[in-house]
Sequence to fold (375 residues):
Amino acid sequence: MHIEIITPEKLLFAGEIKLVKLPGTLGSFEIMENHAPIISTLSKGKIKVKETNGNIVYFEIVGGLVEASNNEIKVLVE
Amino acid sequence: MANLKELRTRIASVKSTQQVTSAMKMVSAAKLRKAQDAIVQMRPYADKLDEILTTVSSNLDSEIENKYAGRKNKERILIVAITSNRGLCGGFNSNVVKKTSELYFQTFNEYSQKGKVDVFALGKKAVDGLKIKGIQVTKGYLDIYEGLNFTTITEITQSIMDGYTLGIYDHVELVYNQFKNAAVQNLVSKQFLPVKISETTEIQSRKGEFKPWYIFEPSMQEIADKIIPQSLKIQFYKAVLDSVASEHGARMTAMHKATDNADVLIRELKLQYNQARQAAITNEILEIVSGANAQLN
Fold:
């Protein structure tokens, strides 16, 4: 599963991951392999990314959007 | 014939000016690369945002309702002129000022007569230039280019968008230099608000294409409500980045020309100098010879 976390200024993170936890507007949720296609708005909070090698990375965000389909995740953050 | 010392000092001064202009050219070239990078960096974000907007609106049955859509009556107009803080970049700034005053005095003449056109100026050159043209600048933003980033630009965009939603302005026009390449900048005046219809027609034409069934959270409408302002902010930010890249491109070209001109000037002056020098020598020899001849006789 591939993820890209993008801000208007730069690419924050890109790589292969196991799971990602996102602060959705309706509550926090996780995306794992073969998740159904989803578009969701994000609110203030932390993104937790677990890479395939087990590394865990966090990103603080104010808000944003996520689109996931075909194991391709794009997170647009502010 | 001009005297030798005068010519020598002129050659020296032209040479030092040439050094300055060629240094400025190099600096601009470096800054241009940085500015271009910023535009490239922003592209994936902007593209994805557009794509999501397209997906959402093609899934939405009705037209997206949004508070940035057009209104029936146009009463107050805002013109946003984007220039730079520094000069020496050819027609870069004066073109924006010219276009802005053309909009002010011709296109929106009936509104400006009634004092219903406001002008925001980004960059010192717009503030100064418009004042000379006799246009009152409502708000000038002078310190945005130091450490330019999305957040500071977004504050301006937000205030403009708030102005629109609160009904202070019914039409917002952007005037700026669009970046084509280092040598070419296109001056454009673009409607910023209300959101243009042409974009929605493009979306409609893509309706019916196969799309995966997305889960929308919280709802399509709410996602659209979030994307539209964000995409406006991106548009505005892109205009500013374009303007910055254009500024450095324009300055680079201007300085390149100035350096070339200095070369021509130096060549001409050197020719004059050598002619004057030769004339002086000939004169001296003539004097010596005629002096010697006088002695002989």
Notes: The CA atoms of residues 23 and 42 of chain A lie 6 Å apart. The mean pLDDT of chain A is 92. The longest strand of chain A covers residues 11-24. The beta strands of chain A are 2-6, 11-24, 27-32, 38-42, 45-51, 56-61, 64-69, 72-77.
